[in-house]
DNA sequence: CGACGTGTGAAAATCCTGTGAAAGCAGGTA
DNA sequence: TACCTGCTTTCACAGGATTTTCACACGTCG
């Protein structure tokens, strides 16, 4: 055996990135690129409480320590200690070897020097979270709750109460993808691209078929809720709501999206 | 090192490093420093067969691609694909952003530019191979009990009552891995990667074969329990349950991070 | 009222796993 | 060295499970 196969399967899982930097130009360019790549990016103004960072379930953090102020290193050390799965990349202007070594020893994963090309920053963030992900294979991953539904990534399965939905792998991945961005309308092409891993051929109905299967299984075990909504001409939206149609925006709105509101989903398109 | 640095003691494991570079001065200095740090370093003259690299059980690899010749990148890609746990750092002279991005995308973990301070190279190598924080080895001296099964890591063997299952080394390692995360579905690739130590080639059925052997031996001595469950299209799950199908292990949340609160998954993570 | 996008059921094509057995290896023995 | 022995890897095939494809009914939109 040995050699053979160059497996292209770069399972590009969506990366959650937070950026702490005040160079708005850089941040903007970065945001544009990461969005294309399907990452979820968020910009932070400065140091925020550790609990909030934890709650964000990030994969990667890009930070310019000067924005953090004087105790930047103490802060970053705590971050690294607290979140062993988080890839931390420091991006800074001029720096000495000693500083860099100290930073890396603290737990920083990579250190880039400004000015730096956004593409390289992205590549390094990617590399860093690739490594982090491998280090701890899906350890945490608390179950996601949506309506009566409980999605457990560690079991590749969803449950209503104790009963399994008996999802196949594809069904599960689709559900997981949808449930990962509740309230967001995802286009078919995007869904296909992310679940199947390659571009959707024109006229392919696979997504529709799997949506149907999901709906059937959901309906069977949780008939009083509707989870997946169709947006004509666009795609689908995951939003658990009781049968009577009352939208239940869970109090989870607590800290999630403080800055930008989650796409107010043009109700004109909504199909009950 | 004379001036000791307050480093997080958590991962003081000795690192096995291989260096592929012809800058003898640099290599020598590096060797001196790593030796003080207690690393095991080995210098290679150039590309060597993948099998040999695998056999070295390295943690980190520092390489100057110019020493590898023309197909350096193809080689490194294969190395990274084969050994996902190996930290690979490229150290090269002048390079373009595009080159660096390409390298990082191939699987390289970090890229340093010469001339570089050895201390920084070491810090980066360390950062790149910093991962297994779990002191698994003999920490849990107590035998693991699962159903009628008793797994004794100290003997590399499992028993039902006083009778040994007569597991071979691989069989035992596989069983131990599975039993280490009861209730979790482990993918074949992950299993292979952790038991065999390198990436699974496409189409390799070794895992299946060993699962069968395990099942046979388990069935023979503990016929009234079923331990290993298949998840179609995914992998296997270890979950001891009596023949009648009653699950015994309550869905205890993963015990991994005690500190991380099972936060109700604040899902809305808006794309900025 | 069309044109087009979506829901549906079922057949067809694929892929996945269990299995038995042969071939390849490494280590010990005569 | 030649041989034996137990372990690991590789192969080929059968039976199922899953995924894809198709044709058609139905809804939505302009």
Word description of this protein:
The structure is a homodimer of 272-residue chains. With 272 residues, chain A is α/β, with parallel strands linked by helices. Chain A contains 9 helices and 12 strands. In chain A, strands 2-1-3-4-5 form a 5-stranded parallel β-sheet, sandwiched between helices. In chain A, helix 1 crosses helix 6, helix 7 crosses helix 8 and helix 7 packs across helix 9. The N terminus and C terminus of chain A are likely disordered. Chains A and B meet through strand 2, helix 2, helix 5, helix 6 and helix 7 of A and helix 4, helix 5 and helix 6 of B. The first copy, chain A, binds a DNA duplex (30 and 30 nucleotides) through helix 9.
Quick structural gist:
In chain A, the strands form 3 sheets. Chain A has a 5-stranded parallel sheet with strand order 2-1-3-4-5, sandwiched between helices. The first copy, chain A, has a 4-stranded antiparallel sheet with strand order 6-7-8-9, covered by helices on one side.
